[in-house]
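Whether sequence alone determines local backbone shape is best considered at the level of individual chains. For completeness, the protein is quoted in full, as a sequence line and a line of structure tokens:
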Amino acid sequence: MLGIFSSKPDHPLADAKEAKKVFDALPGREPQGAVEEATGLLESLPGVEGFKPEQRLALIFQLDEAAIVPARRLGREYVSARLSRPQEQRLFEASRDYWKALIAAYEDSLRRFDSKEKNTETLKPLLPLLYARLLHAAGQLLKWGQFRYGPIDGDLWTTMGRAYLGAVAQKVVDKALPLYPGTTEQTTPEAEYLRALVFQASSMDNLLPVEVELAEHLIAHFLRRFVFTAEVRSDNVYWVDAVTSAPPARLAKAPAISPTLRFFNSIPAVDAVLKLQQRISQDGKTPGDVSLGGNYTPDSVLPVLEHLAMCWAPKPPMRNHARHRVASRLMVVHSIAGIHRQLSGSGDFTECEDWVVDDVSQGGMGAKVALGGADWIRIGSLVGILPQGGGNWLVGMVRRFSRSSESVGAVGIQTLSKTPRAIVADAGGLRTEGILLDAPLKGGTVRLAMPTESWEDGVGLLFPLDGVRVKLFPEGVLDRDAGTMIASYFVQEFG
């Protein structure tokens, strides 16, 4: 009964000793559990009265600082561990909910400050860090959205634009500060906003999640090379209107002039990317002064650098083949086993999905897909394709994927073979199923799609094809995804 007359806020973090226990324990806990606990605490803070404004914000800051370690670990686990789809979904939801809760908590403090609630003037010295942390959290939510290839809610761009313009109005947008304790690197609210804009402009719908993570670190490395301005200049490459829900776009034509327009020039960054590419290619290693958040081989870094250079170039990259708009349907089957059954005539259409083709080119096609049952789609997925009215199956690989909504996705497919063949080979006494992508010719080279566990260095394959004996010797791996790989084989015997 006496508790109802207490002025102490009814919240677990209201007690300084209990709060310290929470903050000290979070960094060392299992990542998902730590992030979920921090999410619950963040969600509860704005609704509890009795906290002084600076006290509430101090608790949010401390929660952010305590949870940043497990939040980063969760990201590394998501992109580097071999996870089942349910595991991926759990990690995604935990991280998404955490960053949303952190953004909402910071926005609540800003709302109280902007509405001039009692005693909120005490927040003014904390505004630079508040704006920077809010924009950083929004950037992390953007990254997690990209891990699943969207959709990105337009409200996120409104949130970031509002925070950026608020920092401009408070004259703290270029205030330099360390984002978290223990780091010597300095940032500003403007830099955090620009980082998110550049991330979005980097068109990552053809990158794997681990490459998205790597791209984020490379963006941070090159960020100071970008020129961010409110001026209309001939060398501007991208633009954004900070009061709208629209993401940044290439400057194809001048937008209507507005005080909330911002532009950025990526040309100096492209020059720096090309120099780093050359340096890595010559030295065979990534320089120590480039922080990538982990250990990456040059073969991992160079393709991402090439991708960023193309996206940041003043002229957009040209397609290799002209695309033609069409409206037709596809039957699609995935996995080596599924494709093998269709090619060998032992499958049926009940295991196939029905997709709608948007465009075709010499090298592939784009399609719309209902995502309800297609949770297997990822960059690098191998697919069998039977076009409407077509006489034979094709084999392709998913190279681009984005979600236009939670239920509809857009898929870009590269055609790997127009004449694939299902084979059953003897691999040193082991029965091995595979998809032959090229017609064999003695002394030539063919590509073979096969389960990852079927590949063995130095172990050849022997199988019949159209009544003749084929013997292949392994040369190397060309592409690899979870459970599937494409390898190059030398044709030792054919006939």
Observations:
- Residues 1-6 have pLDDT under 50 and may be disordered.
- The longest helix spans residues 85-114.
- The two ends are 93 Å apart (CA to CA).
